[in-house]
Amino acid sequence: MRLVVSFLLLFSCAAWAGEPELLEPDKAFRFSARMIDANRVEVRYQIAPGYYMYRDKFRFSAEPASLSFDVTQLPPGKIKKDEFFGEVQIYRGDMRFVLPLAVAGEPVPRFTLNAVSQGCADIGVCYPPHEQKAELRLAAFSPAISGAGGLSFLRSSPGTPPPAAAPGGRPQSEHTLIAELFTGEFWVLMASFFGFGLLLALTPCVFPMIPILTGILVPHGERLTRARGFALSLAYVSGMAITYALAGVAAGLLGAMLSSALQNPWVLSGFAAVFVLLALSMFGFYELQLPGALQGRLSAAAGRLHGGHFASVFVMGALSALIVSPCVAAPLAGALLYISQSGDGVLGGSALFAMALGMGVPLLVVGASAGALLPKAGPWMETVKRFFGVVLLGVAIYLVSPLLPAALHMLAWSVLLIIFAVFLHAIDPLPHDAPGHRRLFKGIGVIALLAGAALLAGALSGGRDLLQPLAGLQGSAAPGAASTPLRFQRVSNLSQLEAAIGAAQGKPVLLDFYADWCITCKEMEAFTFTDGAVRRRLDQMVTLQVDVTANLDEQKALLRRFALFGPPGIVFFDRQGNEIKDLRVIGFQSAAKFAATLDLVLR
Amino acid sequence: MTGLPRRALLIGSLAVLFAGASLLFYQWRTDGDRLPDPEAVGNRVFAATLKGLDDRPETLEQWRGKVLVVNFWATWCAPCREEIPGFIKFQAQYGARGVQFVGIAIDQKEPVGVYAKDIGINYPVLVGGLEGMDFARQVGNRRGVLPFTLVLDRGGRVVATETGLLKPEKLESLLKPLL
């Protein structure tokens, strides 16, 4: 019953999209371009059914401007009567045409094709003139062999089939890759997403799910058969998968800031509270197992309770999906971004469902292995439960960490570590004949105790860095260049952004979308931006930041301008001030990876 | 059977309800686009200042208190041109009873001037240029398409938002109760 209510709630969120569905211009008029040979460009517009484009409204230009196109040879279109302009020619369907390219002055290895076009939909609306770009590359371009042909490569805006890796071409960022996945066949797409989920399962993102699942399976102890373990895991994974599918559908229909909705302080605190409750039960504050007599009576009525049991496991799966979603932000953002543009809820939902099933495979393995991968009942199991309790508390702290002041954050970890140490008998004396594993645990406990004590001392002495808690005690030694926080120039609306890009004086520009509630943003600040190699590269760039915490209209306009759902998101502009779409960073990147990205920007 | 599932069911359901409620609250609080407040959108309309065909800046505030029809259009937009003769007729018919049409052209001044003169537009036409589309988006034109028409009552509340061709019958049924 409660399940029904919850799902109704979720669906009511998705029901707001009531307007006549119109495609985004990039989707209605899909643009791509490629070099046929060194002096001819093929331009292609895939015009959605029910949409058309005006033949005489196309404008093509190139950067650098030494290149120009001959547009006199555009193919004739269908005639449409217009009472003001007379007869006009329009294009429909899949349009391809060839633009002869004229080069004045120095030849260039690559250029950007800017295509401005204008079109309408049959239902009686028109789109304003719209600019689309393709970056074209002449890999084997040389004036002497300009007729050679066939050796040119292309990179163009999303919507084209991904060209096979162009030698020396820019690697594509994760979310571009995902957007391109959507151009394939339905089943290919589903298979890709399943595989993608499998890859995600190899990341630590899935770890928090294992203790939860174990918490569900362990109480069954000896009675847990492989079939039942598998069935329970399947219920859990289904819950997870359906949550992701709903996110996909909602993104398809709403196109709203979903990831930020899930990362708002109330939701984060709510989930942290759930984790704390689960952790407390792991520590035995309240019994997970009913008294023996009751249990006996209940097992007689087990048949009646099975349904409810599976439903609860299903709900846990659904919750877990929401909890780990910040962890898989990058692939999710890419998928959600594209789904929201496609307006196709079914496709989006199916794709994310397949992805979640892939993520769930290791969990199914844990479940199906029943006894093998899970601890047997007994004192050993108590230890494991306590360990998971600690892990759950850790996850809870991690979830709310962006909301906490640094000192409180450190205190929380120190308390957790010290309590963990006490559970490991770190301060109980060891008997002389203690077995090896108890000595090992005591050792780990002492380490945890010392780490917790260091954090506590650090927090109380003004240290604010989790990884260097005692830095505050070193006195004010000369601070290294890399330890000062990166200084961003704040921009808060489009005109400020344009002004800042204009003032960059030929330097590349980095634009970082930030919000106080954004965990990934904080991680980037703490681990990536502080890295020396990253800092040396950032010093050669203009670094801008938009704080979208307040979610004002002008901030939302900026997010829309870059088709972002919300932070985290880092956008780059080249030395001419044009956005480098392929290099966007959505989600966390390690210092090494981010430095490599910056190298490509600085090229 | 154990106690965990029932407890987990309770906790889980509460958490889902809580999450759903938070999501709703968050959307309601932050996403004005989805559940627009008719008066707030109206205020955004009245706050705008655009140049007229004579290059003089005009505020939309000057038409507060009228039954206002704001029509976003362009000369390059065939469906827009199709509905304008109807607007001219309505302006002549209902103008004396407090109805005011205002055209905002997402276009350049020259073709707009030629067209307005040619077809005899009898209500003010302001020139928004392509930036005018940002304004249109702010007042509810989600996909940034034309034509797009807002109808405001005398109290400055947006009572209708129409994307695409607005049929005379529909417009009349919208205007009648506001007179």
Provide an overview of this structure:
The complex is a heterodimer of chains A (603) and B (179). Chain A is an alpha+beta fold and 603 residues long. Chain A folds into four domains: 25-161, Immunoglobulin-like (Sandwich), CATH 2.60.40.1250; 186-288 and 306-376, no CATH class; 404-472, no CATH class; 486-602, Glutaredoxin. Chain A has helices at 2-14, 25-28, 174-181, 186-201, 209-217, 226-254, 258-262, 265-282, 292-300, 302-324, 329-342, 345-368, 379-400, 406-423, 436-460, 494-502, 519-528, 532-538, 553-561, 591-602; strands spanning 29-37, 40-47, 51-54, 59-63, 67-69, 78-82, 86-91, 94-103, 110-117, 119-121, 125-126, 130-137, 153-156, 489-490, 509-514, 542-547, 569-573. Chain B is built from six helices and seven strands; from the N terminus they run ααβββαβαβαββα. Chain B has helices at 3-30, 38-46, 78-94, 109-119, 132-138, 168-175, and strands at 49-52, 57-59, 67-73, 99-105, 125-127, 148-152, 158-163. Chain B has a seven-stranded mixed β-sheet with strand order 2-1-5-4-3-6-7, with helices on both faces. In chain B, β1 and β2 form a beta hairpin. The chains are: A alpha+beta (603), B alpha/beta (179). At the A-B interface, α1, β11, α8, α9 and α10 of A face α1, α3 and α5 of B.
